[in-house]
Design goal:
four-stranded antiparallel β-sheet, five-stranded antiparallel β-sheet, extended, Pnp Oxidase, Chain A
């Protein structure tokens, strides 16, 4: 059998989440830094960071062609949207945060269940610890990570819980949208993924000699 070259998305892509340590207010769904693979994920939609400005051709009046293409030296934030199937007894944000502390009352009320996006914002503000969101591309021949993309400083910026229900409605896809500051990609090695049967990457050109 020929070695596999090209990536297959379904069944070989996972998204993982490391929740921050508890601040003592009970404002997270967990009190540890345990990394979990997010369950019931249907779609992962990523928009990579874009350049802060468009490249610009430099062309003096006396030049028939541009003499240089200037490009920007910085990128904007990226975004990633994760779509789940809603469960009977949980909103989609429960995969990340469940409660927050309401400081608008006196005394402050702890362990307030999140009811909307504002509650998610408040829960994030209470938990400045390290939050880790990763996309893992799995080697189909070993079941281990062949590439790991870490989304640095991810922040939940929107929860899509809109819905329309009728007699024929079945399951409900709901989305959580993140923004992140940058992405870091790591590749497996023969040490981290021994026994891989994937073909080595090839970036050569096809000979034009016929």
């Amino acid at each position: 059998m020929a070695k596999s070259i090209f990536r297959v998305g379904g069944a070989y892509t996972r998204i993982t989440w490391t929740k921050p340590s508890s601040t003592g207010t009970g404002s997270t769904a967990t009190n540890s830094n345990q990394t979990v693979t997010l369950a019931y994920v249907d779609v992962i939609r990523e928009t990579a960071p874009r350049a802060v400005a468009s490249p610009q051709a430099i062309q003096p009046l006396d030049s028939e062609y541009p003499i240089e293409i200037a490009f920007p030296g910085a990128l904007e934030a990226g975004s990633i949207e994760v779509t789940f199937r809603e469960q009977w007894n949980a909103e989609v944000w429960n995969a990340f945060y469940s409660t927050y502390t309401d400081y608008s009352t006196s005394p402050a009320q702890t362990n307030v269940p999140i009811s909307d996006l504002l509650g998610v914002f408040k829960a994030q503000l209470e938990n400045p610890g390290t939050v880790n969101l990763q996309k893992i591309i799995v080697d189909p021949t070993t079941g281990k990570a062949v590439r790991t993309i870490t989304y640095n400083n991810p922040v939940i910026v929107n929860i899509m819980i809109d819905e329309t229900v009728n007699i024929g409605t079945m399951t409900f896809p709901k989305s959580v949208q993140f923004m992140y500051t940058s992405r870091t990609e790591l590749y497996s090695t023969s040490t981290t993924d021994p026994g891989s049967l994937l073909a080595a990457p090839y970036f050569g050109t096809t000979s034009t000699n016929q």
